[in-house]
Amino acid sequence: MHSKLRRTLLGAAALGFAAAAVPAAGEGGVSQEELIHKIQYARTRADHEEIALIYEKQASADLAAAEEHRRMGSRYKQFDPSGVDRSTFASMAVHCNNLVELYTGAAKEHSALAALHREAAR
């Protein structure tokens, strides 16, 4: 039972991380391949403004993911299930905190890239 619960929780976390890391084309985002193409052929002010907007949206998504993991980490710290070693949930809280740091750092980097493209647009 313990290993099944752990696999379920880890699988859900992995899916959440993957979904947050790459913008979905159906949600107004672009694929990584499309973004690389846009970067490679960016020549005009409008091109750079469009790329800056993509990075700003990703930075916002990164911050949302960081906040989600901040809340999850808090819940793991408070969780006290019967029959499950408490240290397991403490470890999960540590992973959430690590993801908070990663997503926060990614947001800063995406914001910096957006600023550079805005500068290039001038």
Description:
- With 122 residues, this protein is mostly helical.
- It has helices at residues 2-21, 32-40, 45-78, 86-121.
- Helix 3 packs antiparallel against helix 4.
- The N and C termini lie far apart (59 Å).
- Mean pLDDT is 81; it is low at 5-27.
What does this entry show, briefly?
The protein is mainly α. It has helices at 2-21, 32-40, 45-78, 86-121. Helix 3 (45-78) runs antiparallel to helix 4.
Which residues form runs of ≥5 with pLDDT under 50?
5-27
From N to C, what is the helix and strand string? HHHH
Could you tell me the number of beta strands?
A: 0
Overall 3D form: elongated
Distance between the termini: 59 Å
Rg from Cα: 18 Å
What's the oligomerization state? single chain
Q: Which structural class should the secondary elements be placed in?
A: mainly alpha
SSE blueprint and pairings:
Elements: H1 2-21, H2 32-40, H3 45-78, H4 86-121
Helix pairs in contact: 3-4
Name a few traits of the molecule:
122 residues, mainly alpha, 81% helix, elongated
